[in-house]
């Protein structure tokens, strides 16, 4: 049989099925023809820059890759809000870009089922209805900015849709805008500007307050908050910060004191808000907390309108507890025209301009375009919001084990007798690595995929695997066993074992002595192998389909089964026999390229020495 090698130059991560196995955009360059009748096995080269496909006989996964490679269709990316040209250009290289700004929720819902990715800023609500209307096609939501409070993350995860954001490119812009609002508010710039333009000259009305020596409390000491702190120190302010999760070193490096919430609000002359809007931070500035502030405090909000109870702020402004406020963000954007808060004499407002500099918009557009294109290629984006981040080097190391994990899951579930009701799954990894160093999230997700997809119409990927398992009541347990290096060549995993306890099996021999269905596999030369079923050791490449037979250990069995398959034109790709004791029982694992007919399987079952058999699709 001719061996054909094919190379493709993408990051290996782009070709493995962790994110969207059904449609990786892979361009294959086959070195010779005949590939459709070939079997493709995927191997990552030692430099981790490419994958080698070794072609021998047909396989479903190989043909799937070929199918995608021959399709010219580019993924469609819907851009729902203004994005800089540099980001659009980057997207246009590999995707079909649809810029449709200002869509109503209904228009968005109508369009989304023809889109593979959606890019938004803060003005578009990506609600559960959007994911439902996408009918499974939407694979990535890109948020061209930081805050993802306008995206329903629970729904995204349930639908297996990856959400990525652009968390760094607008930090400075937001911090500069915070400082702009702080200084403008202290000196009544906006009010004085309007007054002069109205033909007035009110110098004594707009006497301001100085910043130097005043205490600024930065609430939320993350990227934006710390840049605001740095700049405020340059203005001669005394800066304190409150952030329950910020590392002390970050504050130390900027000579900023981290204080409790109570201390921050009680001592500050100015309070600048920089925390995300979450269930915990929603309305954390309210009647009660305003009352605990220093009388005449000034508040700046460049974070999210929802962290303030807006009605309470109006009351605090009216009774003088809060002297002034400068707001870039509102609970409802745009706010109602007659909003008392917006119209308040001592409130300075901007229309959510924090990230709106030319530089920041160019930066977020490029950051999000790269993340979306990467995600569409199957890469795990570094800025993923609802999926674990698996570093690229770990990913390429684990690539063959990812395939093994899915196949073992697929195999194990097919061995379960109908009506058993799977409740739990245990995955045991043996590895020469320290158990704590082995990141198994990807492998666990793929075992889930292998178990769930054959028995449901759920689409499982790294984003929704844990959710789907939980939803189906599948309890996952994992065990990592450290194995000494001998024979494992330093590979991250030596073997993966999938166990399904408390179920009946279609193939009694798959049940271990301990009473659970057990299949175990290893990767050899980049190819996943089944190495154990129940208590029987076997060695068969996990490709194509598999027939498992248990028979009395006697001569001639391989020949008998082989000739039945040959007479029906079913090609045997691998065969392995494992037995307990000589002359007792043996397990025969036979890899077949084609699916044998029912009659062929019956003929095998009728061989006298065969005690049980099962046909499994991989
Ligand atoms: N107005 C605008 O155009 C922009 C607004 N933003 C907003 O600013 C927020 C912050 O952005 P980054 O600094 O880039 O995010 P970040 O994630 O770097 O910082 C947020 C910080 O808030 C802290 N935090 C969380 N819960 C808190 C709580 N209950 N009390 C105090 N601190 C808490 C976190 O520990 C974190 O350090 C974003 O979530 C976004 O909503 C960001 C960019 C532009
Ligand atoms: O990045 C953020 O969180 C922002 O609030 C910026 O919003 P925008 O992209 O300008 O609508």
Summary?
With 618 residues, the protein is of the alpha/beta class. The chain has 19 helices and 26 strands.
Describe the protein's architecture and organization:
- The chain is of the alpha/beta class.
- It has three domains: about 75-165 and about 360-375, 3-Layer(aba) Sandwich (Rossmann fold); about 170-350, Rossmann fold; about 390-615, D-3-phosphoglycerate dehydrogenase, domain 3 (60s Ribosomal Protein L30, Chain: A, 2-Layer Sandwich).
- Strands 12-11-10-13-14-15-16 form a seven-stranded parallel beta sheet, sandwiched between helices.
- Helix 6 crosses helix 8 (about 225-235) and helix 16 (about 440-450) packs across helix 17 (about 465-470).
- It starts with a strand and ends with a strand.
- The relative contact order is 0.10.
- Mean pLDDT is about 85; it is low at about 1-70.
- 2-oxo-3-(phosphonooxy)propanoic acid (HPV) binds near residues 147, 170 and 352.
- Its main location: plastid.
Any key phrases for this structure?
Rossmann fold; 618 residues; binds 1,4-dihydronicotinamide adenine dinucleotide; phosphoglycerate dehydrogenase activity; binds 2-oxo-3-(phosphonooxy)propanoic acid; disordered N terminus; 3 domains; 31% helix; serine biosynthesis; alpha/beta; six-stranded mixed sheet; transit peptide; 60s Ribosomal Protein L30, Chain: A
Write the layout of secondary structure elements.
Layout: E1 4-8, E2 29-30, E3 40-44, E4 51-55, H1 60-70, E5 76-79, H2 85-94, E6 96-99, H3 105-111, E7 117-120, H4 128-133, E8 140-143, H5 153-158, E9 162-165, H6 171-186, H7 189-197, E10 215-219, H8 223-234, E11 238-242, H9 248-253, E12 257-258, H10 261-267, E13 270-273, H11 287-291, E14 297-301, H12 310-318, E15 322-327, H13 340-343, E16 347-349, H14 358-376, H15 392-414, E17 424-431, H16 441-452, H17 465-471, E18 475-482, E19 495-500, E20 517-524, E21 527-533, E22 536-541, E23 545-552, H18 557-567, E24 572-579, E25 585-592, H19 598-606, E26 610-617
Parallel strand pairs: 5-6, 5-7, 7-8, 8-9, 10-11, 10-13, 11-12, 13-14, 14-15, 15-16, 17-18
Antiparallel strand pairs: 1-2, 1-4, 3-4, 17-19, 19-20, 20-21, 21-22, 23-25, 23-26, 24-25
The structure holds 1,4-dihydronicotinamide adenine dinucleotide and 2-oxo-3-(phosphonooxy)propanoic acid (HPV).
2-oxo-3-(phosphonooxy)propanoic acid (HPV) binds at residues 121-123, 144-147, 170, 352, 354-356.
Organism: Carex littledalei
Family: Belongs to the D-isomer specific 2-hydroxyacid dehydrogenase family.
GO biological process, one term: L-serine biosynthetic process
